[in-house]
Amino acid sequence: MEDLQVMVTLFIIVILGYLLRKLNYFGGNFDKKLSALIIDVTCPLLILSSVMGDELPDRKLILPLLGVGFATYILLCVLAFTVPRLITKDTMAQGMIGFAMMFGNVGFIGYPIVASIFGHQAIFYAALLNMPNTFFIFTAGVMLVKGERSRGSFNWKMFLSPMMLSAYIATIIVAFGIHVPHLIGNPVTMIGNITVPGSLLVIGSSLSEIKFGNMLRDYRVYVTSLFRLVLIPLGLYGVFRLCHVNELVNEINTVVIAMPVAAFGVMFCMRYNRDEKLMTELTFVTTVLSVITIPLLHVFIQSLN
Questions:
Q1: Mean per-residue pLDDT for 113-121?
Q2: Is the full-model pTM beyond 0.85?
Q3: Which residue range forms the structural domain that includes residue 183?
Q4: Which three-class secondary structure state does DSSP give residue 227?
């Protein structure tokens, strides 16, 4: 019940963002600038704030987290290039579906939800689990959207993005047991906390532009959503449980993987001149359905322990 309340609370903020867009408070350059602020400033600070409390996360989990993170994306990559062929014969749609299966909206939605379910320190764990995302989304992700088996547009500078740098610094803080003074930690935490409402408002604003139309009749959207939100997270949870991965690490990884489709998908479609209709529909439907699926998934996993 607590998980459901958390998701409903977050979804209410999404609805507010939707309404504010309709009232012209959001939209255009404002959304772009707020998104940039969240990605480059507040979310990196949110990651740093997770290791700036009186008690540091467990340093023994650093290597297991990184190992599970890379193993997760390798498995997701295999699924993304094979399963869509069973869903549709349209090669371009296969790429869109593969991207949707592989990449979740961790930065905008994942970190707030992980913090709400597992506590503030768990953001650090989620950040480590999500590190491989940067490499894979700009290689395999671009290949899927473009429908090519090229090298994509991977840029090594992505490993020096604010989000990645904050994860590196947080890892160093935990690894060496550095306790950051409250004089620094408090403002970092205050600014980092902007991430949760800010990101959800932006998502709500972007969803206001989607037209329902034929979306509700496209079976591909619902089949892909089932894989993205339920089957893939549960499957990976089972695999890592059989491998005796730390239970906390496995649970956090499962929730991270259960996020709705990453917003980068639509951006890539626009950049590479691909029809973003299917990707937008997948993003919208998975975002709405995740309000129910994430709490139920977490409750189900807990019942197994």
A1: 83
A2: no
A3: 2-298
A4: helix
